[in-house]
Amino acid sequence: MQEQPQEELKRSLGLWSALSIVIGTIIGSGIFFKQGAVLDSAGSSTMAIFAWIFGGVITLAAGLTIAEIGSQMPYTGGLYVYIENLYGRIWGFLAGWMQVIVYGPAIIASVAGFMAIMMTNLFGLSSDWRIPLALITILFIGALNLLENKVGAAFSVITTAGKLIPIAAIIIFGLLWGHHNAFGQTVGQVSQAGGGFGVAVLATLFGYDGWILIANLGGEMKNPQKLLPKAIVIGITAVLVIYTLITVGVLRFLPAIMIHKLGDNATSYLAMAAFGQMGGKLLSIGIIVSMMGTINGKILTFPRIVYAMAKRHDLPFSRPLSYLTPKSKSPVVATLFIIVLATIMMLFFDPDHLSDLCVFTVYCFYTLAFFGIFILRRNKLVKRPFSTPWYPFVPLVAIAGGIFVLISEIFNDPEGVLLFIGIVVVGLPVFYLVKKIDRRHE
C-alpha cells in the first residue's frame, strides 16, 4: 500500500463531531424534497416506503464495506485515497477529479437549490430569488469554513441538533395525528411515467448520500482507525430509521395523490397545514437550518479532497490549492475553488436533475471501492482495525446496489450520464499534462 505524505491538518475531531458530520451531511434536502419523486416512481405508498428502506439497506451495506477499507487507510482524501491504493494512481486521480470537479460542486449546488425553494416559499418570494438566496447561503457557509476546522465542525453539531426538531415534529405529528393509512395508497396514473421501483430507489439514494464524506477528514480525527467505522455505521443506521419514520409520517398526514400534485412543495404545505401559519414557518426554518448543515458538511469535507490532491501535485495550480493558513490550518484556496464551481453548477443546472446525476457519478467509484474489500482481504499482512460483519454477504449487497444504481440511471437519463462521464474522462489529459509539467520542473 502506498505511503501517504505527512499531514499538516489538525487532528481535533472526536466522535460527536464525526457523528454530527455524518448525520448532518446526510439529512438535508433529500428526505424533504424527494418524497414526491419517490412516490411517483414507486407508484404506491407501500412501495415508496420500501424504496426508502431498500435505499437505506444499500447505503448501510456500502457504509459497512467502506468502514473496513477506511480503517486501513485513515488519511485525508477518503475515496480518492482508497481508489488510488487499490487500483493505482490514474484511477485514484479520476476518483478525486470526479469529486472536486463534478460531484462535490454539483451536490452543494443541488442542496442549495432545494433550500432556496424552501426559503422562497417561507418568505413568499418569487422564484427569481432562488439563485441569489442559494448563492448567499453558500458564500456565508463557505466563509465559516475558511476558519479553523473546529468552527465548521461546531456549526455541524449545532445544525444537526437543530434539524432534529422539525424531524421529530413531522414524525410525531404524522404518526399520532395523521388520518391516512401510510400503506396501500396508489398513484397508478403516474407510476408508469415515473420510471418504476428502480428509479424510486435511485431517488432515495440522493437522500442517503453524503455518508462517505467523513472519510475525507480521516487526517483530522483523533483516532480514525476506530472512530471512522463507528461514525459511519452509527450515523447511517440512525438516518435509515429516521427516514423510514418521516416517510410513514408524511404519508399518514398527506394523501399520496396530494404529495404527487405538490411535488417539491409538499413539505412546506405539510408544515403549514400541521402547525398553522406561525408553527409552519418555524418548522420550515428548522428544515432550512437542516439543509444549511448539509451544505456546511459538504463545504467542510470536499476542499480536503482538493487539498489532498494538490499535496500530491495532481491538480493544476497545486501550490495555491494546497495552501493552509498558518494559524488555523484551513485549506482556504481549496474551499474557494469548490465554492466557485458550485456557483457555476447552480447557474446552469436544475437541482433535481443534478441530484440524480451526482448519485450516478459517485456510485461509479463507490462500486470500484466496494470490490476493493476483496483485494485487501487477500493481503494477510495488512492490519484490519474494523471488519465488515457478515462478510462477504454485506460487500456483495453493496456491489449489487452500486450496479443497480448505475444501470437504473443509464436507462433513465442516458444524455445526462454521458455528459457527466465526459467531464470525468476529461480528467485524463489533465492528469498527464500536470505530470508532464512536473517532470519539466524536476
TrEMBL record:
Tell me where the transmembrane regions lie.
12-33, 45-69, 90-117, 129-147, 154-177, 197-219, 231-254, 331-348, 354-376, 388-411, 417-434
Tell me what topology the record assigns in the membrane: Multi-pass membrane protein
The places in or outside the cell where this protein is found are:
Membrane
Q: Does the keyword field hold Transferase? A: yes
Q: Which Gene3D superfamilies match?
A: Amino acid/polyamine transporter I
Q: Which GO terms describe its molecular function?
A: L-amino acid transmembrane transporter activity; protein serine/threonine kinase activity
Source organism superkingdom: Bacteria
Q: What GO cellular-component annotations does this UniProt entry give?
A: membrane
What's one Pfam family here? AA_permease_2
Entry annotated with the keyword Transcription: no
The record's keywords, sorted A to Z, are: Kinase, Membrane, Serine/threonine-protein kinase, Transferase, Transmembrane, Transmembrane helix
Supply the InterPro entries for this chain.
AA/rel_permease1, AminoAcid_Transporter
Major site of localization recorded for this protein: membrane
Q: What is this protein called?
A: Amino acid permease
Q: What organism is this sequence from? A: Limosilactobacillus fermentum
